Every structure is written in C-alpha cells, then in structure tokens.
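Residues determine shape. Take a concrete instance:
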Amino acid sequence: MKNTCLFLMKFFTVFFCLSFFSCAILQKPEETILSKKEIVPPEPGEIAEPEIDPNAPFKISNVAISHQSFSPAKGEAVTISWHISRPSKALVQIFDPDMLLIRELVPENTGNPGLCEVTWGGKDPDGNIIPDEAYFFTIEANDYKGELTHYDPITFSGGKNFDCPVEFDSSKQLISYNLAQDSRVLIRTGITHGPLLKTIVNWEPRLVGVHEEPWDGKDASGVINAADQKGFTMMSDAVTLPENSILASGNKEYTYVEYKHEISSDRPIKEERPRIVNDKTQPDLPFNRPVQQGDAPKFYLKLPENLQITEQGYPIVSGKLPIKIYLDEKVKKSATERRYEIICYVDYKFITEQEEGYSPSTWLWDTNNMPNGEHVLTVNVATLTGQVASASMKVMVQN
C-alpha cells in the first residue's frame, strides 16, 4: 500500500510539471505578439514614418506653373506644381522683384509623396491685388526625419546679361525685338556722346518671343523729335529672369512703385542662398541680378516766372538763367538714399554737372555765351544704381 501511494504521488507530480511546461509553450506565441511595437496613428499635423527606401534621395522635381502670365484683376489664378520624393511638409513662398515676401502658400495634400500643388490668385496677405510685375517663388520641404530640401530658382537661373538688338519702324512707330528667354528689358534713346532723351522700357519683364513697343519718336518731355536728331541712337540691354517666373498684368489701380511705397506693409526679405552654377557675372553692371535697382528718378524743370513767350510757346530768356530742378516727391527719398548726379546739356552738348544731386537744385546757365535763337535744354538725372531720367525744353535766347 505504501508503495502504491508513493507511485501515485510521483505520477501526479510528473503530470503536473508536464502540463505546466506545455501551457507555457502553448502561450509563447501570444507573448511574442504582445511584445511587438504597437502601431500608433500620427497626431494631427505630424508626418507618419513611411515605408520607403531610406537611401532614396529627398528632392523636389518637375516644378511647373500652369500659366507664365495672368491677370489677378480679372480673377485669374496660377497653379504651381511639383513632385516630392518623400512624405513631407511643404511651404511655397512667392517674392516680388525686390526679394520681399509677397505670399506664403501650403499645399492641401501636404504629407503625401508624389504630385503637390498650390493655387495663387495674385493677392498679398492683406487681400491687395499685386501690381503688374514679375514674381518668382521658392519651395521648402522637410520630411519625417527632419531632412530639408528646397527649390530656389535664384540659385541656378536668371541674372544673365545679354545683348538685345532692337529695330525702330518710324512709319509704324514701333520698336521690335526678339527674346530667347524670359527677361527684363531696358530700351533707351539718346544722342551719341550726348544726353539720354527717353527711357522707353525700364527693365520691365517680358516673356520669351517677339515683342513690339510703341514709341512716337519723341523725347521724355514730348518736345523733341528725338529720332530725327543728328547722332540719334538706341541703347538696349536685357537680363534673364529666374526659372518659372510669373508675370502679373491688368492692374490699372496702382503701379509697382506706388504699391511698394504707399500700399504694401513691411515684409521679410528672401533668405539668401549661394549660387550653385558656375556663371560669369558682371559686377560692373548694375543689373546683374533679376531685380529692379530702384525707381527712375523722375523730375521736372522750372524757369523763372513772368518770362515772355514766343508764338511757338518757347520762353524768351537772356543773361544768366536760373533753371530749377525738382525731384518728384514720390521718388525723392529713395533717389537721395541711392545718391544721384545731375548732368546738363544745351543743344545736346555737355555743359555742366552736379555730382552730388539734391532737390531742388539750380543750374545757372549763362546765355551770353550762346547765339540768339532757339536752343534745346536737356537735363539727365542719374542714380548710382543705373537709373536715368530725362527732361528737355526749348527756349528762345534774346540778348
């Protein structure tokens, strides 16, 4: 009996141990499942970690615009699109010609790789329709790892100066030229070794292709048939715009200068990035980058009051004649900050200059050195950044 009890005790002990280990083995897969990392959905605004090749380059490519030009005043809009290689957050920043931020846009499908796009209706953050000008944009993106990439056309395009031959058809009163790239264009007329008579196109943006500019052949004041003068010449220059520049048109309410000085609020300037292409810039040229270098120094001339007038409407002058030169109040501050000089001509020949200009200035012209008769007075105001304005008048000398 004793042996039987001992046998039963050993049997149940072995059976219990085997049952325990069997249960442990059977439960092991369940423990393994519980030890796996739990998948937690991302919080709003966060970027989920994608299942992609970690060695794939993070880049922006296939950047495009739906229209090169549009009219925000007519309700038109432009769409900016691009391809991004990884899930990421993106920001589009649009800048004006002075590198100042005009608008920020975020794509609705942010966070997803592939095609992204934003649409811009041509308004600034305050709801103002942008003035007619050329605008460019940058794209910045950062992925779930914090890696950054960007598209900045200023770093690899635009800013290249090139000759822009022009032709003037006096019968049609048109100046024609052909552009191989989207560019800013400068067209001036004047007298060889003499004064500038008119700036017809003042570094204004133009798209690639053939263009025609109207010109009646007269100087800036409308009193001289410039194209008929001896030594008449036309000067032109161009500088390429950044890739994917957007040209706005149709705003009849205010110009870019008026918008900049009277309407626009303070805005941050674009982040400066180094050029990533080897190009030969020309530092001696004031327009070796695709932005305007200030406003044209508009001005007017004023003679003493109570002068007699000829039948043709010319003031009759004699002796020493004080000629007042006044800068337009809208550009006076900016022109003074950039510094300017005043150059004076009689009958298209240089007479004198004032290297440090101020407004009002006085040119004291001694008519005793001139023969009696009709003469042309021309004044040029030139800033140190390359902007030049001109004004002329005809007078009758009678000494």
